[in-house]
């Protein structure tokens, strides 16, 4: 597609449930990033992939957060046993490679009740 | 650990005026400094970016000024328009990975 596509756009889950958020990158973009954006704040880095390799996961807030990109294209961010503090917009960005601009999707707004 | 500090938090400018947003960073390893514009319900969109080997970059009405010794950079929006009303984020990174964002500036341009 023309841009980064994220699904679902909105997700409501009960505390304790597991959720999975999907990111479809721009075709040919080898680098993929996940960010968490709390209301009224800037995006915060979570993790980074170069093709299928997860090169940096230092921003993942706990071991309940897990990301994968098994074939170097679509990526999934999974959150297990969700907590209310996980409520945020989760943004995916992709780029053609090192030193190339990051292009963002419109995010998934996650609400934990 | 806020590595990029942005000010002001909000800004109101009259149509035709100049909007100025400032950012400061700590990590001298940062070598890429983009500015993003975000509208409600949308993802951030890259506006303009600069590397530390130049002190200024201009694209249309948008200019980045960069002061390497002070570890500061700013965005100037000339001839501000109501359509520029959005939230603006500065960011900094090393090799455009692990991007650190400022907290954002909500700009309102009054007609």
Please explain how this structure is put together:
The complex is a heterodimer of chains A (113) and B (111). Chain A has no helices and 11 strands. By secondary structure, chain A is an all-beta fold. In chain A, a hairpin with a 2-residue loop joins strand 5 (44-50) and strand 6. The termini of chain A are far apart. With 111 residues, chain B is an all-beta fold. In chain B, strands 2, 4, 5, 9, 10 and 11 form a 6-stranded mixed beta sheet that branches. Chain B has a 5-stranded antiparallel beta sheet with strand order 1-3-8-7-6, with no helix packed on it. In chain B, a hairpin with a 6-residue loop joins strand 4 (33-38) and strand 5 (45-50). Chain B is globular. The termini of chain B are far apart. The relative contact order of chain B is 0.34. At the A-B interface, strand 4, strand 5, strand 9 and strand 10 of A face strand 5 and strand 10 of B.
Give the topology, please.
The complex is a heterodimer of chains A (113) and B (111).
Chain A: E1 5-7, E2 10-13, E3 19-24, E4 31-37, E5 44-50, E6 53-56, E7 65-68, E8 75-79, E9 88-95, E10 103-104, E11 108-112
Chain B: E1 4-7, E2 10-14, E3 19-25, E4 33-38, E5 45-50, E6 56-59, E7 62-67, E8 72-77, E9 86-94, E10 97-101, E11 105-110
Parallel strand pairs in B: 2-11
Antiparallel strand pairs in B: 1-3, 3-8, 4-5, 4-9, 6-7, 7-8, 9-10, 9-11
Strand content of chain A: over 45%
Quaternary state of this entry equals heterodimer
> Major beta sheet of chain A, specifics?
7 strands, mixed
The major pleated sheet of chain B works out as: 6 strands, mixed
Kindly, what is the distance between the CA atoms of the first and last residues of chain A, rounded to a whole number of angstroms? Answer: 33 Å
Question: Which parts of chain B are unreliable, with pLDDT below 50 for 5 consecutive residues or more?
Answer: none
> Overall pLDDT of chain B, averaged?
94
In the predicted model, the low-confidence regions of chain A spanning at least 5 consecutive residues are none
Radius of gyration of chain A: 13 Å
Helix content of chain A: under 10%
Number of strands of chain A: 11
Span of the ends, CA to CA of chain B: 38 Å
Provide the succession of SSEs of chain B. EEEEEEEEEEE
Q: How many DSSP H or I helices of chain B?
A: 0
Note the beta-strand portion of chain B: over 45%
Briefly note the structural class of the backbone of chain A.
mainly beta
Into which percent range does the helicity of residues of chain B fall? under 10%
- Overall mean pLDDT score of chain A? 95
| Shape call of chain B | globular
Q: What is the alpha-carbon Rg of chain B in Å?
A: 13 Å
């Amino acid at each position: 597609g023309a841009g980064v596509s994220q699904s679902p756009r909105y997700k409501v889950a009960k505390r304790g449930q597991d959720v999975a958020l999907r990111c479809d990158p721009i075709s040919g973009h080898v680098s993929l990033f996940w960010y968490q954006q709390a209301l009224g704040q800037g995006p915060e880095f979570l993790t980074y992939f170069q093709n299928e390799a997860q090169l940096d996961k230092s921003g993942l807030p706990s071991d309940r957060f897990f990301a994968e990109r098994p074939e170097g294209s679509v990526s999934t961010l999974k959150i297990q046993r969700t907590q209310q503090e996980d409520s945020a917009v989760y943004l995916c960005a992709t780029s053609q490679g090192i030193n190339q601009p990051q292009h963002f999707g419109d995010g998934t707004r996650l609400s934990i009740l | 650990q806020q590595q990029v500090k942005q000010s002001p938090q909000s800004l109101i400018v009259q149509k035709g005026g100049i909007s100025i947003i400032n950012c400061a960073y700590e990590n001298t390893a940062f070598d890429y400094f983009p500015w993003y514009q975000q509208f409600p319900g949308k993802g951030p969109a890259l506006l303009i970016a600069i590397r530390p080997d130049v002190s200024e970059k201009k694209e249309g009405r948008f200019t980045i000024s960069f002061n390497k010794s002070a570890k500061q950079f700013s965005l100037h929006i000339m001839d501000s328009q109501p359509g520029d009303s959005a939230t603006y984020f500065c960011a900094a990174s090393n090799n455009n990975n692990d991007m650190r964002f400022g907290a954002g500036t909500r700009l309102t341009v009054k007609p």
